[in-house]
Amino acid sequence: MSAPDPSTSPYDAVVIGGGPAGLQAALTLGRMHRRVLLLDSGEYRNARAEHLQNFVTRDGTPPAEFRAAARAELTAYSTVTVREAAATAVVPDGDGFRVELGAEPGADGPESLATRTVLLATGLRDTLPAIPGLDGLFGTVAAVCPYCHGHELSGKHVAVLGNGPHVARVAFLLERIASRLTVLADGGDLEPGIRAQLDDAGVAVRPEPVKELNRSATGATVSFAEGPSAEVGGVFVASEFAQRAPFAAQLGLRMQESGAVEVDPMGRTSVPGVFAAGDMAHTSATPMPLASVLVAAASGLLAATTADGELLARAHPAP
Ligand SMILES: Cc1cc2nc3c(=O)[nH]c(=O)nc-3n(C[C@H](O)[C@H](O)[C@H](O)COP(=O)(O)OP(=O)(O)OC[C@H]3O[C@@H](n4cnc5c(N)ncnc54)[C@H](O)[C@@H]3O)c2cc1C
Q1: Residues of the chain with CATH 3.50.50.60
Q2: According to the model, what pLDDT value does residue 45 have?
Q3: How far is the CA of 68 from the centre of ligand 1 (A)?
Q4: Are 79 and 34 contacting, i.e. CB atoms less than 8 angstroms apart?
Q5: What are the φ/ψ torsions at residue 169 (nearest 5 degrees)?
Q6: Do 182 and 234 contact (CB within 8 A), yes or no?
Q7: How far is it, in rounded angstroms, from Cα 5 to Cα 273?
Q8: Is 75 helix (H, G, I), strand (E, B) or coil?
Q9: 224: which strand partners?
Q10: What DSSP state is assigned to residue 309?
Q11: Does residue 90 contact residue 42 with C-beta atoms inside 8 Å?
């Protein structure tokens, strides 16, 4: 039998995203012999991190190695196709969807693929505070999550950049790990209650605007608009995040206040047939995505299981 034509014969699922959420979703669907296409545009949230931490059996693995291992596992499932291609649009079409792909090098033109369900796992894009030098340190010396990158700074002087209420929480998460903690308030006013909490805990505060950060032999040198510079082993920052892909907006998916897609505990979005997993989505139980590789993979499994169950229900409606 020749392979079905994907422009007319629909996939069971198109998974958009080749990070941990999409890779796990494709594995789950492949194991159920669903015809699935995984699209990966190669833009991963942890692309600049040297190691992936806090994932049992994978602690310390380079993220690219993790993805390569997952891709290798998918080759065992003949109904799974992986393409390094960017989707440009997802459009409802009858009781399914069409996924549009931009023209790839060497292709005749843009492609349009039919699918019965769509599983979005397109992740988030981070924007960092506009401090010279910070962007170049992101993923190595500068990090967002103490659970992922705190332990590696054991016994070092650690900085927490920012002046919002979150700085105290981040500093306190690190107080058993760092030898010394300094909040870099960057010219902003810390709320007096927060300042008092930091003072009580022995966390230093540098109120001056941060001029720049430069990589040093032991971490980074922080220069201020005035006063002496500081040598730190690492710096924690709060990024602003946004959807990496336009599909939530295109499909009119219901959103959370955080800017993530609203899903139910099984990965269903507000549009039937569209599922979402990973950092781009979360339930109403949390104020923001629980950004971690293990959680992303787990939510990919859940959403894929739900998509598979709904395909099953369509094939075998309740008597
Ligand atoms: C600097 C940094 C370090 C981190 N370190 C850790 C750590 O040590 N441990 C940990 O557990 N977590 C860590 N995290 C968090 C972790 O990276 C995320 O939770 C995880 O990557 C989320 O997985 P995801 O599959 O949802 O998204 P991503 O991994 O971001 O993958 C998104 C996928 O969608 C694809 N995509 C997007 N748009 C399109 C499109 N239009 N067409 C086709 N494909 C598309 C991308 O190419 C990519 O394949 C870190 C995050 C950052 C920022």
Answers
A1: 11-125+241-315, 129-236
A2: 97
A3: 14
A4: yes
A5: -60, -45
A6: no
A7: 21
A8: coil
A9: 210
A10: H
A11: no
Q: What separation in angstroms does the CA of 312 have from each of 2, 116, 201, 298, 319?
A: 24, 12, 56, 21, 13
Q: Whose CA is nearest to atom 3 of ligand 1?
A: 46
Going by pLDDT thresholds of 50, 70 and 90, the confidence category of residue 221 is: very high
Is the confidence at residue 13, as pLDDT, over 80? yes
Please tell me the distance between residue 174's alpha carbon and the centre of ligand 1 in angstroms: 24
Domain 129-236, CATH: 3.50.50.60
Calpha distance 319→317 (Å, rounded): 6
Lowest mean pLDDT among 15-19, 103-107, 134-138, 293-297: 103-107
In angstroms, what is the span from residue 260 Cα to ligand 1's centroid? 14
Contacting residues for 107 by C-beta, under 8 A, at least 6 apart: none
Residue with tokens 């079409």: 93
Is the separation of the CB atoms in 233 and 181 below 8 Å? no
Ligand 1 neighbours, Cβ below 6 Å, are 16-22, 39-46, 48-49, 52-55, 86-87, 121-123, 126, 138-139, 143-144, 148, 244-245, 278-280, 291-294, 296
Task: Give the closest residue (by CA) to ligand 1 atom 52.
Answer: 46
- Cα-to-centroid distance, 46 and ligand 1 (Å): 5
C-alpha dihedral over 31, 88, 128, 22, to 10 degrees? 0
Whether residue 136 has pLDDT greater than 90? yes
| CATH among 3.50.50.60, 3.40.1350.10, 3.40.50.300, 3.40.50.720 for 11-125+241-315 | 3.50.50.60
Of ligand 1's listed atoms, the one at least distance from the Cα of 52 is 8
State the distance from the centre of ligand 1 to the C-alpha of 23, rounded, in angstroms.
11
Task: Give the separation between CA 278 and CA 269, rounded to whole angstroms.
Answer: 13
Mean pLDDT across the chain: 95
> What are 181-211's pLDDT values in tens digits?
999 999 999 999 999 999 999 999 999 999 9
Which helix (H) or strand (E) covers residue 127, if one does?
A: strand 124-127
Structure tokens, 273: 């047939």
pLDDT at 102: 80
